[in-house]
Amino acid sequence: MIICTRKLGDLKKIEINNELNRGGTNQTTMNASNNNMTREAWNPPNHSEIQGWTRSTHKRSENDKTQPNKTYFKYYSPTGKTFRSIKSVEKYIQEEKLKANNIIASVECANVTVEQTPGGGIHIRWTEIKDDKKSVSSLTEEEKGKFRNVWNNNLPIKWMVDSNPKRGKSRERFELYWNNGENDLEQAKKSGLKWSDALNDFKKKIITIDE
Question: Which residues 6+ apart lie within 8 Å of 8 measured at CB?
Fold first, then answer.
């Protein structure tokens, strides 16, 4: 014969604790099931060349206060990192690319990259030759001779700029002999234009022959 000496209130507490324990077991099982959801192959937008990413589909609880029953995704990198948004995936990919190339900074609109060398130094790389250098080297002997004839005989020229393109002291001299495009060749010479200046301006298409 078993004699129960516990009070009714104690028995109620034991019953409630047992229910909570059973609920905790069910919750653990549900979480385990959620973590083992099937992943599908996935490619980050604008990065189709990168392979190995996956994603899994999830759904919020109907009791969620902000977005009940909403479907959302989790994204997994090839190394196992987990992300909750495509924006965070994009940021991670860009950071990884910079690490791979050792590029520690990028200068916009200047065709320059700043790289860190293995020894910890900094290397600034110009990735494109300026257009004005290309045009200077492209002048042929025939074009030089033709412009020499214009120079010697003060033949008509045409200014191809609307503003002063020069810098430093060259800017001041150009302002004088250019005169906002009003000077002809003879007037420009009197205002300080020399053959070397004229040839350089001709190469850079600042001056053309008015034919």
Answer: none
pLDDT of res. 77: 93
Same domain, 167 and 205: yes
In a domain, 65, yes or no: no
pLDDT below 50 — which residues of the chain?
1-6, 8, 11-14, 16-17, 19-21, 23-36, 109, 129-136
Both 147 and 169 in one domain: the answer is: yes
Model-level pTM greater than 0.90? no
User: Residue 190 belongs to what domain range?
Assistant: 131-209
Q: Which of 126, 161, 184 marks a domain boundary?
A: 126
